[in-house]
Amino acid sequence: MNGTQETDSIPDQQMWNSTVVVTTRGRLDARVKYGHMARFSEKKMALFDDGIMVDFYNENGEHASTLTADRGQLDEEDNDVKAMGNVIVRSDSGVTLFTEEISYLQQQDRIVSQVDVKIATSNGDTLYGVGFESDPQLKAWSIQRVFGRAHKGVDLSTDRWQRGPAADSLTADSLTAEPAVPSGAPFSANAAARAADAADGAAAVPGAGNSDVEPVP
User: Fold this and answer.
1) What 8-state DSSP symbol labels residue 35?
2) pLDDT tens readout for residues 13-44
3) Exposure winner among 44, 57, 73, 79, fewest CB in 10 A?
4) Radius of gyration of the chain from Cα atoms?
5) How would you class 199 by CB atoms within 10 Å of its CB: exposed for 0-12, middle for 13-18, buried for 19 or more?
């Protein structure tokens, strides 16, 4: 997929406040809602420059997660979707991902990112790293170059992305989460922020038992 929205072509189709549906052999994979779309038929590309929201669905057609971002693009040749700018993915299983760029690879049914990411779970764990891969449900995910903190109070600030891990942080080459048990309600970032002000204490890191994770002295 082309990694930029820049194009010197004139779109041959423009649409506002509509939806693009992504399917596999008739099965619903995703719905892309957008504020404005510019479509370039020759390049087989559609650009979204006024906000996007992507709803992902599992193999049974059930809603799995929701992605929001400032802008994005759709590769019409392989149905891959790329989202950029203030990207947030909230899964129905209670996991939330924060990053600046992420791609949905439709043929593999995976979401991947090569930049800084933050993971917040419904039980209060927060992890930071660079590089991420997951199913769209955020149930079985892996994060590379982990430098995050496990804590009952979810730290939703992003300034830690610009500095090294603190004394109560964890670091590892990679970390993989096992499929999580659904919490029954979507993760609420606002509720987590309020909980962070009131809660304090240690919590388990998902998947840490399968990873070479050492405390930072």
Assistant:
1) E
2) 999 999 999 998 899 999 999 999 999 999 99
3) 44
4) 18
5) middle
Phi-psi category of residue 27: left, alpha or beta, with phi > 0 → left and psi -120 to 50 → alpha: beta
> Cα(123)–Cα(211) distance, rounded to whole angstroms?
20
The two structure tokens encoding residue 144: 């590379």
Helix H or strand E encompassing 167: none
Pick the CATH number of 13-215 from 3.20.140.10, 1.10.10.60, 2.30.30.30, 2.60.450.10: 2.60.450.10
DSSP-derived 3-state class of residue 183: coil
Residue at token pair 């990112």: 113
- The CA distance from 204 to 195, in Å, is 17
